[in-house]
Q: What sequence folds into this?
C-alpha cells in the first residue's frame, strides 16, 4: 500500500486504478474497493456494508467527502459499524445501476453521490444521495439499531427490494421475431400504422412540455440529452414535422450560446442548473461531448448552418487537447472544481477581463457575453454566455457576421491563453472502452459531414486501441484502462454495443470491410456472453461475470443510449449488411418488446429511432463500381444530405459484401461501371448513375 508521511490516514484505495477512489485514499474512513474480500469481511465481523458510489468529476461527491468522510468523528462511527466500500460508477456501471435502481425504488429519485447500506450479501436496505453529515450519521445510527433489534424484518425488506430491483426495467420479448420492413414484409400495415400513431401521439404529448424559449424540455436542471435530440431530428425529418425541426434548432442554438458550452475552450458541461443553459454544473464528460459531435454533425447535414460546423470542430479540438490519451483512447472527465471551488477555472470578473483585453476588445466581449449583466453569477463573476445569435450581435455592432466572429475568436484565444495559467480542474485519466467508442462514432459522423481527414485518422487510432489493446485473452473486451495499472474489469454490454456501433460507423465512413468483420466478431461474443434466449434481450453483465444481488438489463435511454437499444440498431445493420436474417429477427424481437413495455419516448428515444427505421420508409443504398475511391467520392456527395432512413454500403469486384449484389447485377446485366442501387424491403430499383438520381428517388430534393 502507498504510504506518505504527509497524510495522517491512508486506506486501501491508495493503489487503485481509479482517480475517484484515489481521491478518498487519505480519508479517515477505512474505505476498501469493491471486492469479495469486502463482503467476506462484513460477514465475518457481522457488520453492515456501506456502499458509496460516485465519480471523480462529481461536485456533490466532493462536498460529502469534505463534510463527512474527512471528519474524524463521523469516520470513527462509520468504521465501528460498517465495512465501507467506495465504488467508481464509471469503472463499475453494473454496481451503480443495481444500487441506483434500489435507491430509486426506495426514495423515488437518484443521483450521485449514491449511498447505500446493505446486508453482508450485498442486498440493500437503505439508500439516498447527498446527506449533510449530522443527518447522515443519525440515519446510520437508526439503521444499525433497527438491524440489531429486528434482523428478520430487515432481511424480509431486503428480499422484497431485491425482487423489485430485478424486475425494474426488465424486458422480456416474445419468441417470434418479425423480420421485414413495413412496406411489403411480414410487419402488417395495420401494425405499422399503430406503431406510427403511437410514436406520433408520444411526440405530441412531449411537445406540451417543450421549452419554447430556450429549447428541449421545461424546467431545471437542463441536460443536453443527445439521445432526445437525435430522435427529434430523425423524427422531424421522417415526418417532415417543421415544428419538431424548429425545436431541435432552437435547442442546439441555445445550448451552443449558453454557459453550458465553454465559449473560450469549446466543449459542453454535463448540465445546466437553470432553465436557460446559463450556469453549468461545470464538469465536462467525454460521453456528452462525444455524442454531441454526432448531433451537431447531423444537424449541419439537415440545416446547412455553418455555426454547427464551428461547434463540432471546436468540441473536437477540446477533446483532442484535454482528453487524448497516449494509449490511443480518450480520458473520461474534467472535474467541476479547481482549488476546491466549483467553476473557478471558467468564470471571469470584469476586472480580470479588462486586464487581458484592450478597451475596444473588452467592449465587444462584454457586449457579446453580457458580462456583469445577464451573465452575472456569484461573487462578482460571470459565466460567459451569448444571449443572442451571432447575426443579431453582429448587426447591433454594425459588423458583418464573419467580422464579428473573427474578432470574437481572437478575443477568445487571448482569454484561453490567460486562462491556461489558472489551476486546471482535475482530470480523470482512466480510459473507458465504451466512452472511447462513442467518441469514435462522433468523429466518424463528423468526417461524413465535413470530410476532415484528421478526424477520421484519430478515430481509427482510438478504435484500433480498443480492438487491439483492450482485448482479454479470450478475445473479449476490457472495460477500463489506466496507463499506470493497465487493464482492469472485463467489459460490460455497453463496451460491446458502442464498439460494434463504432465499427459500423467506421465502415459507413470508409467502406473498408474489415470493420464489418470486427463488428460481426464482437456481435458473436456479445450473443455468447450476454444474450438471454428466453428473454430475447441482453444482460448488462456477462454470463462469466460474478453476479450482483440482482441481475440487470440496461434498457433506459438516458444521458447515453441504453446498451440494449444500441444492440437493436447493431443487429439490424449487421443483418442488412451481411444478409443475416437471424440478427434482424433478434433485433425486431427486442424492439417490439421494448415498445410494448409502454416506455416513454423521452426515456426510449434511441429505441424510437430504430422503430422509425422499421415502421417508416427505409432504403438500402449500394454504391458499386470498379474503383473504391469513386465509391467513397459518391458516398461523400450523398453525405451532404441528412439521410436517417438509409443504410449505405460500397462494393467493388473484390468486395465480400453484400453477397446479394451479384444476383442484382446479373439480373440487370450491370456488373461494369458506376451504379447506385436503391433498394427497399429486399427489392432493388434499376441502378442509378448519379447521386442526384438517388436524391430524387429518396425525395430529398423537395
A:
Amino acid at each position: 500500500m502507498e504510504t506518505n508521511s504527509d497524510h495522517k490516514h491512508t486506506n486501501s484505495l491508495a493503489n487503485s486504478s481509479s482517480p475517484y477512489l484515489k481521491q478518498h485514499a487519505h480519508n479517515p474512513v477505512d474505505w476498501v474497493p469493491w471486492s469479495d474480500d469486502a463482503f467476506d469481511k462484513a460477514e465475518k465481523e457481522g457488520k453492515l456494508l456501506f456502499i458509496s458510489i460516485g465519480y471523480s468529476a462529481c461536485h456533490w461527491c466532493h462536498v460529502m467527502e469534505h463534510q463527512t468522510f474527512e471528519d474524524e468523528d463521523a469516520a470513527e462511527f462509520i468504521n465501528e459499524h460498517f465495512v465501507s466500500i467506495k465504488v467508481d460508477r464509471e469503472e463499475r456501471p453494473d454496481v451503480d445501476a443495481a444500487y441506483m435502481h434500489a435507491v430509486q425504488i426506495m426514495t423515488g429519485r437518484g443521483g450521485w453521490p449514491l449511498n447505500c447500506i446493505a446486508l453482508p450479501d450485498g442486498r440493500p436496505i437503505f439508500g439516498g444521495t447527498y446527506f449533510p453529515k449530522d443527518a447522515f450519521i443519525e440515519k446510520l445510527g437508526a439503521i444499525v439499531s433497527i438491524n440489531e433489534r429486528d434482523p428478520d424484518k430487515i432481511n424480509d425488506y431486503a428480499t422484497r427490494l431485491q425482487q423489485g430491483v430485478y424486475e425494474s426495467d426488465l424486458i422480456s420479448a416474445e419468441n417470434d421475431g418479425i423480420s421485414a420492413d413495413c412496406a411489403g414484409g411480414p410487419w402488417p400495415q395495420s401494425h405499422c400504422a399503430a406503431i406510427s400513431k403511437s410514436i406520433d401521439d408520444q411526440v405530441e404529448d412531449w411537445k406540451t412540455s417543450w421549452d419554447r424559449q430556450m429549447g428541449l424540455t421545461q424546467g431545471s436542471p437542463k441536460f443536453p440529452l443527445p439521445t432526445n435530440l437525435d430522435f427529434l431530428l430523425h423524427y422531424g425529418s421522417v415526418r417532415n414535422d417543421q415544428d419538431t425541426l424548429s425545436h431541435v434548432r432552437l435547442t442546439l442554438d441555445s445550448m451552443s450560446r449558453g454557459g453550458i458550452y465553454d465559449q473560450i475552450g469549446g466543449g459542453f458541461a454535463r448540465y445546466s442548473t437553470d432553465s436557460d443553459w446559463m450556469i453549468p454544473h461545470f464538469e465536462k464528460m467525454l460521453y456528452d461531448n462525444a455524442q454531441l459531435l454526432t448531433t451537431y454533425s447531423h444537424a449541419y447535414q439537415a440545416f446547412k448552418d455553418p455555426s454547427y460546423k464551428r461547434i463540432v470542430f471546436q468540441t473536437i479540438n477540446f477533446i483532442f487537447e484535454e482528453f487524448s490519451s497516449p494509449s490511443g483512447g480518450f480520458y473520461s472527465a474534467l472535474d467541476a472544481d479547481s482549488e476546491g471551488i466549483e467553476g473557478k477555472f471558467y468564470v471571469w470578473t470584469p476586472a480580470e477581463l479588462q486586464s487581458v483585453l484592450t478597451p475596444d476588445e473588452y467592449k465587444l466581449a462584454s457586449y457579446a457575453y453580457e458580462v456583469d449583466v445577464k451573465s452575472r453569477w456569484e461573487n462578482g463573476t460571470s459565466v460567459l454566455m451569448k444571449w443572442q445569435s451571432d447575426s443579431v450581435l453582429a448587426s447591433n455592432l454594425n459588423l458583418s457576421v464573419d467580422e464579428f466572429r473573427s474578432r470574437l475568436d481572437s478575443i477568445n484565444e487571448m482569454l484561453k491563453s490567460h486562462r491556461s495559467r489558472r489551476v486546471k480542474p482535475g482530470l480523470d485519466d482512466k480510459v473507458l472502452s465504451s466512452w472511447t467508442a462513442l467518441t469514435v462514432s462522433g468523429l466518424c459522423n463528423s468526417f461524413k459531414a465535413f470530410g476532415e481527414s484528421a478526424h477520421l485518422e484519430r478515430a481509427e487510432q482510438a478504435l484500433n486501441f480498443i480492438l487491439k489493446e483492450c482485448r482479454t485473452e479470450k478475445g473479449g473486451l476490457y472495460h477500463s484502462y489506466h496507463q499506470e495499472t493497465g487493464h482492469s474489469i472485463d467489459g460490460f454490454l455497453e463496451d460491446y454495443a458502442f464498439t460494434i456501433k463504432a465499427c459500423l460507423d467506421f465502415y459507413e465512413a470508409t467502406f473498408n470491410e474489415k470493420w464489418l468483420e470486427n463488428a460481426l466478431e464482437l456481435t458473436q461474443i456479445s450473443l455468447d456472453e450476454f444474450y438471454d434466449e428466453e428473454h430475447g434481450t441482453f444482460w448488462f453483465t456477462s454470463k462469466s461475470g460474478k453476479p450482483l444481488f440482482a441481475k440487470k438489463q440496461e434498457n433506459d435511454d438516458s444521458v447515453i443510449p441504453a446498451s440494449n437499444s444500441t444492440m437493436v440498431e447493431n443487429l439490424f445493420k449487421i443483418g442488412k449488411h451481411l444478409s443475416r436474417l437471424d440478427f434482424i429477427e433478434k433485433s425486431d424481437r427486442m424492439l417490439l418488446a421494448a415498445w410494448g413495455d409502454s416506455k416513454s419516448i423521452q426515456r426510449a428515444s434511441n429505441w424510437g429511432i430504430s422503430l422509425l427505421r422499421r415502421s417508416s420508409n427505409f432504403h438500402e443504398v449500394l454504391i458499386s463500381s470498379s474503383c473504391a475511391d469513386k465509391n467513397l467520392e459518391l458516398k461523400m456527395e450523398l453525405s451532404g444530405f441528412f439521410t436517417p432512413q438509409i443504410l449505405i454500403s460500397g462494393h467493388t469486384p473484390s468486395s465480400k459484401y453484400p453477397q446479394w449484389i451479384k444476383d442484382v447485377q446479373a439480373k440487370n446485366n450491370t456488373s461494369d461501371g458506376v451504379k447506385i442501387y436503391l433498394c427497399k424491403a429486399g427489392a432493388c430499383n434499376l441502378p442509378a448513375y448519379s447521386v442526384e438520381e438517388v436524391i430524387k428517388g429518396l425525395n430529398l430534393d423537395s
